[in-house]
Specification:
Shape: globular
Order of helices and strands: HEHHHHHHHEHEHHEHHEEHEHEHEHHH
CATH architecture of the largest domain: Alpha-Beta Barrel
Helix content: 40-55%
Radius of gyration: 23 Å
Number of strands: 9
Number of domains: 2
Low-confidence stretches: 1-8
Structural class: alpha/beta
Largest sheet: 4 strands, parallel
Strand order of the largest sheet: 4-5-8-9
Oligomer: single chain
CATH class of the largest domain: Alpha Beta
């Protein structure tokens, strides 16, 4: 507690938060809560883990780079200077505190108070009247000797983290962490080659040059381009990478022939304008080539789709990408997804795959599609990803859980991830686990699941950790006891 005044009710964040019945409470406290965390998709800067980053204030730790909060602040009428501008830390935090009472019903209200409770021991509600006390208490905690990037990771019981890394990255920070025996958590790279399939982007040719330099070669044609990507893919594998990630607006599966793509690439490198049809064919070719690379190494491939990005030109030109101006796309996905997966499956080149849909209308599309390509080689080979981004909240996660239950095998689900740039986001795993246990506990008490805590509890442990430990080749062991 920050202040001594008596609260009229118990804190919002308490031992049984979100757990609405006895079965849910048993499942969470006995089975979910003790399990370690595998955070197989996030955007943490590897250099901050390697350097064991310390933070100057709660504002840097909490509000810096968090576009979820930036969107909320703008919606509450806060001037941009007090969000991403040059205002001082207290002024920015004060605005966030003033916005908090307006966020009732928004997942940010839950996330904020869960993080305050878990990392700072603060159970008081954040608001204008408590802002200064909480700001000072958080900063005192941040200044203590045991508050740093690595200590937050270890204190959250995280055993493996996968960052998001460009093929040109040196991965030097991952190596530094791997070589440091004092830190037990694995920091692993994840291959994110989005820039390699976007010829319409102004910086594409410069990126290809950078790729060539990182691969130690000059890229003069399409074959050389693929060879350079293969070289970097091999390098990532040698550095411990075992999965890729692709951010696409939709799936691309146009018909093409190899010579067409070679000509398109030559035209791109020559600075010639290219038609939309050629862009789509190039994207289709590269999505296929990346999938073939992953299959050759036995990696997991992840596809995050249906985001439309950088909608606000004014803010994009001022601040760049990832500043809270992205939203949900409504492009069709089913036909191209089916064609893409079918081609890989037919050729024996479909590796383990996770699909994350941003548009919730596509839950059933994904849930039904996955069953077409399960092949008996790996339990849960084709995965419906956890509720992502705008679906990363109670209703979105519940709908994903229920869809997967109805159309696939929830018991084989590899569970939650943070998808975050913040070291305070491991409470997202707790949030998910509490929701999962509440859903299953409610079904147990309603007679929809057996009243067998041991049976359902094993399923909970598997979803929270064991399935991911077995699905990914990260060298971490499941908890079988």
């Amino acid at each position: 507690m920050v202040s001594d005044h008596k609260m009229s009710e118990r804190p919002m964040i308490h031992d049984d938060f979100l757990l609405q019945n006895a079965a849910a409470r048993r499942l969470y406290h006995e089975f979910a809560e003790p399990m370690p965390i595998i955070d197989y998709h996030c955007h943490l800067p590897p250099e901050e883990v390697a350097g064991d980053k310390r933070f100057s204030s709660i504002t840097e730790c909490w509000l810096g780079g968090d576009h979820y909060k930036w969107r909320a602040l703008r919606s509450n009428g806060v001037d941009e200077r007090l969000i991403t501008g040059d205002a001082d830390d207290w002024d920015k935090f004060e605005q966030w505190a003033a916005t908090m009472p307006k966020l009732l019903g928004n997942p940010l209200h839950h996330w904020t108070h869960l993080e305050l409770s878990r990392y700072f021991g603060i159970d008081e509600l954040l608001g204008p009247d408590t802002a200064r006390e909480i700001f000072d208490a958080c900063n005192a905690r941040i200044a203590s000797d045991d508050f740093s990037a690595r200590q937050l990771i270890e204190g959250s019981n995280v055993v493996a983290i996968c960052t998001t890394d460009d093929p040109c990255d040196s991965l030097e920070h991952h190596r530094a962490v791997r070589d440091d025996s004092s830190f037990d958590c694995k920091l692993l790279p994840a291959w994110r080659p989005d820039k390699g399939m976007c010829p319409e982007a102004p910086g594409f040719n410069a990126w290809v040059d950078k790729l060539g330099a990182s691969a130690g070669t000059e890229i003069t044609d399409f074959d050389g381009y693929l060879a350079a990507l293969k070289s970097r893919h091999d390098f990532f594998h040698a550095e411990g990478c075992r999965l890729s990630d692709h951010g696409i607006e939709t799936f691309y599966a146009d018909d093409y022939i190899r010579n067409e793509i070679a000509t398109i690439f030559e035209n791109i490198r020559g600075g010639e304008p290219i038609e939309d049809e050629d862009i789509s064919k190039f994207k289709s070719a590269m999505l296929y080539e990346f999938a073939v690379l992953d299959a050759g190494r036995g990696w997991v491939q992840q596809f995050h789709f249906s985001a439309t990005r950088n909608n606000n030109r004014r803010l994009f030109e001022k601040l760049g990408p990832d500043i809270g101006c992205d939203s949900i796309s409504d492009l069709p996905v089913a036909a191209a997804m089916s064609k893409f997966l079918d081609l890989l499956d037919y050729e024996g080149k479909l590796t383990k795959t996770i699909l994350y849909n941003l548009n919730p209308r596509d839950n059933e599309v994904v849930g039904a599609m996955l069953g077409n390509f399960q092949d008996g080689s790996t339990a849960g080979k084709m995965q419906m990803g956890s509720g992502w981004w705008f679906n990363d909240q109670l209703d979105g996660m519940r709908r994903q859980i229920e869809c997967l239950s109805q159309l696939g095998l929830l018991s084989r689900f590899v569970g939650m991830l943070t998808d975050s740039r913040s070291f305070l986001s491991y409470t997202r795993h707790e949030y998910f686990r509490r929701l999962l246990c509440n859903v299953l506990g409610t079904q147990m008490e309603g007679g929809l699941l057996p009243d067998d805590t041991t049976l359902v509890g094993k399923m909970v442990k598997d979803i929270c950790y064991n399935n991911a430990a077995q699905y990914f080749d990260f060298g971490v062991e499941p908890v079988l006891a």
